[in-house]
Specification:
There is one protein chain. By secondary structure, this protein is mainly alpha-helical. 73% of the residues lie in helices and 0% in strands. It is built from 17 helices and no strands. α5 packs antiparallel against α6 and α9 runs parallel beside α11. The two termini are 27 Å apart. The mean pLDDT is 91.
Length: 393
C-alpha cells in the first residue's frame, strides 16, 4: 500500500492529480447552492479550462526531461543567484536601506552554503533547523498570536520571520520523518504544525504535515494510521481552521466549515477565469504578478479592489496574468523540469528535499507561483545537488 502511494508521489502523477482535484472541486462549488451564492465571479470559460488542461499536458513530459538533466556542475552559481533574488524580494517588499538588504541577502545565501557543507551531519542540522524554526516562530508570536487577531495576521503575512519559519519548519519536519524514531518524529512534527497554525496561515501548518508524511511514505517509514492521523489534522485545519480565519477576517462569515474547501477552490479558479479573460493571449502586467511578493496585485489589477488583499489564482495564474498563454505554459514547463530534477532519491536527504519541493508545489496549485517560491525552490535544488554525494547518516 505504501509503495503504491509512493508511486503516486512522483511529480508526473501527484501534480496533475492535485490540479484535476482542484478543478473538480471548483466545479462542485458552483453546483452547491450554499456555496455558489458566496462566489461573486462567474464560472470560468471553456478557454480557461482548456489552458489549465494544456498546462498539465506540458508539465508531464517536462518532468521526464528534468530527470535527464545534469545540474551538479551548476551548483556553485546558485547561492549568488539566491542572494540577488533575496535582495530583490526584500527591496520590493520592505522600505529598508540597501545596506540592510545586502546584509540579509548575503547572510541567507551564506547560511545556505554552510548548511550544504554539513549535510552529512544530520544529528547537527536537525536540531539546528528546529531551533531556527522555533526562534522565527517566537519572533512572530511575541508580537501577537495571528490566529487570534486579524491585524496581527495581516502584519505577519509577508515578514521575513514567517518565510524563514516556513522554510526551516518544513525542513525540520522532513528530517524528523527520515532520520528519527516515531516517538520523537511525530510529536516534533505536530508541534511544528501547531506553531504554523498559530502563525495564522494554514499553508504553513499543512506544509509541515505534508513534508513529514510524504518523506515518510517515500522512505517507507510511516504507518497508515499515522498518515490517517495527519489527514484528519489537515482536514480540521482546512475546514474548522479556515472557517475561523475567514470569520476573523471578514466578520459576518456564514459558510459551513464542511463547505469551505470547495468554496476556496471555486473562488481561486474563478479568479483564474477572470485572469484569462483579461490577459489572453499575451498577458497584461508583464512581470508585475510574478514579482509580487504579497500576492495583492491580483486584487487590484484583476478584481478592482480599492484596498489591496492577498488573492490566490492557481499555479499558472501569475504567469498567465503577466505573459498570457506563453507565461502559463512556461510556468508549467519550468515546474515540471524542476520537479524532475528534484525527484532523485539516491539518499534519504534527497528524498526529504524532494518531499519539501513537492509539498510546496501542491500548495502552489492554489496559491500561484511567486518570487518567494522561486527562492525556496532554488534553495532546495542547491541542497539536493550537494546532497547527491553525501552518504546517509
Amino acid at each position: 500500500m505504501r509503495s503504491s502511494l509512493a508511486d503516486l508521489l512522483r511529480p508526473e502523477a501527484a501534480v496533475p492529480l492535485g490540479y484535476i482535484a482542484l478543478l473538480l472541486l471548483a466545479a462542485i462549488a458552483y453546483g452547491i447552492e450554499g456555496v455558489a451564492r458566496h462566489l461573486t465571479l462567474p464560472y470560468p470559460s471553456a478557454l480557461a479550462l482548456g489552458i489549465s488542461l494544456l498546462a498539465i499536458l506540458v508539465l508531464v513530459p517536462s518532468v521526464r526531461i528534468g530527470r535527464r538533466l545534469e545540474l551538479r556542475p551548476w551548483a556553485p552559481i546558485i547561492p549568488p543567484v539566491v542572494a540577488i533574488l533575496t535582495a530583490l524580494a526584500l527591496y520590493l517588499t520592505f522600505p529598508m536601506p540597501w545596506i540592510a538588504i545586502s546584509l540579509i541577502a548575503v547572510g541567507y545565501a551564506s547560511l545556505l552554503w554552510v548548511i550544504s557543507r554539513r549535510l552529512g551531519e544530520v544529528r547537527l542540522i536537525t536540531p539546528a533547523a528546529l531551533l531556527l524554526a522555533g526562534a522565527f516562530s517566537l519572533a512572530i508570536l511575541i508580537q501577537g498570536i495571528p490566529i487570534l487577531d486579524a491585524a496581527s495576521r495581516a502584519s505577519t503575512a509577508v515578514t521575513p520571520a514567517r518565510a524563514l519559519f516556513h522554510g526551516f519548519g518544513v525542513f525540520a519536519a522532513a528530517l524528523l520523518a527520515a532520520f528519527y524514531p516515531r516517538r520523537w518524529a511525530i510529536p516534533g512534527i505536530l508541534i511544528l504544525a501547531l506553531l504554523g497554525f498559530l502563525s495564522g496561515f494554514k499553508s504553513d501548518s499543512l506544509s509541515i504535515l505534508s513534508s513529514g508524511v510524504i518523506t515518510g511514505l517515500l522512505l517507507e517509514r510511516v504507518r497508515m494510521k499515522e498518515v490517517a492521523l495527519a489527514g484528519i489534522v489537515a482536514l480540521l485545519i482546512l475546514t474548522v481552521g479556515s472557517t475561523h480565519i475567514a470569520s476573523m477576517a471578514y466578520g459576518g462569515w456564514k459558510l459551513s466549515p464542511a463547505l469551505y474547501i470547495p468554496y476556496r477552490f471555486g473562488f481561486t479558479y474563478s479568479v483564474f477565469g477572470q485572469i484569462v479573460d483579461l490577459s489572453f493571449p499575451l498577458g497584461l502586467l508583464h512581470g508585475g504578478a510574478l514579482l509580487s511578493t504579497t500576492q495583492e496585485v491580483v486584487s487590484t489589477a484583476v478584481l478592482a479592489y480599492k484596498e489591496p488583499h492577498i488573492i490566490t489564482s492557481t499555479l499558472i495564474g501569475p504567469g498567465m496574468l503577466d505573459f498570457g498563454l506563453p507565461g502559463a505554459l512556461a510556468t508549467a514547463a519550468l515546474i515540471g523540469l524542476y520537479l524532475g530534477t528534484m525527484d532523485r532519491r539516491g539518499t534519504r536527504l534527497q528524498a526529504c528535499l524532494y518531499a519539501i519541493a513537492l509539498t510546496h508545489t501542491l500548495v502552489l496549485l492554489e496559491v500561484g507561483l511567486q518570487l518567494s517560491s522561486v527562492l525556496l525552490y532554488l534553495s532546495l535544488l542547491y541542497l539536493s545537488l550537494r546532497a547527491g554525494g553525501v552518504p546517509d547518516a
